[in-house]
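Example record for the data management plan.
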Amino acid sequence: MKAVQFSEYGEPDVLKVVDVDEPHAGPGQVRIAARAAGVNPADWKRRSGIFRDFMPLEFPHTVGFEASGVVDEVGEGVTGVSVGDAVFGLGNHATAEYVVLKSWALKPDDMSFETAAALPVAVETAWRILDQVQAKAGQTVLVSGASGAVGSVAVQLARHRGLTVIATASARNHDYLRKLGATPTTYGPGLAARVRELAPDGVDIALDIAGSGIIDDLIEITGDPARVISIADFSASDRGALFSPTQLKEPGIVFTEAARLYTEGALRLDVQKTFPMEKTGEAQALSAEGHVTGKLVISVA
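Corresponding structural encoding:
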C-alpha cells in the first residue's frame, strides 16, 4: 500500500510516498480503507525534530494520527461496527491507504470523509481540556488561538456546555469566530485590558491552544494558574498552570457525541484546504505558518 513516510528529521521535502506492508486489525481495533487523513501541528513538529529529545521516532516513520474511511477488517472483541461501515477515529501511521484505528465512531451520512478526518484530534483535545478545567455552564472562558481546529471545536463545545466564550485570533478571523458563537479579540500586547472590557465580571478559565508564550497573561486574566491549561506550552506547569499531554481513555465515546452534535448542527469544522498524499509536505508547511482557519486534510483515495 501507499503511505507517507520520512526516514530522517528535516524539512518538508523529507516526506515521501512509499510502498509499505499493509497493517492489520488486532484485538479491539478496526482497519479502514482510508479516504482522508487530518494534518496537525504535531505532524510537522515530529518531522522537523522539535520533539526528538523527549519523543524520539523509529525510522522510517509514517505520519498522521487521525483518518476516516470504510471498515474492511474488524479485530477480535470489537462490537458495534461491521465491514463496510464508514467511520472516523484515531490511530498511528494514519496518512496511508489502510489505517488501523484504536478508537472510532460511525460517520454520519451528512458528514464528508474530509470533515470526518479533521475531527478526531480536535474533538478529543478540546473535550479533554474543558473537562480538566471543570468547565461549567455560566462560566466565561478565554480561548487563546481559537481559529485553528482545536480552538474552533473548543469554542463550540464550550458554547454547547453553556459557557460564554471570548476567543483570540487575527482580525481576519473574527467573523469566523462570531459564527462559532464567540466574542473575538486580537492577541498581543494589551490582551488583559481588552478581555477585561469584554468580560467586566472576570474570566473563569483560559485555554492556551497556540502555545504563543502567553501563560503569564492568562494567569493574570483568570487570577489563578490552576484555571489555565495549555496543550502547546511545555513550560505551563512551571508557572503553576496545567499542561495536558495525554488522551482520554475512551475517545470513541466523545467521537460518537461529536457526530451527533454535527448532525444536529451544533458542531462544525471548516476544511481550509485538501491536499493529495504527494503534497503532504506542502500541507505541513502551511500548518507550520500558524494561520490555518479550521483544518488541513490529506485526501487518500
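Summary line stored alongside the record: The chain is about 30% helix and 25% strand.
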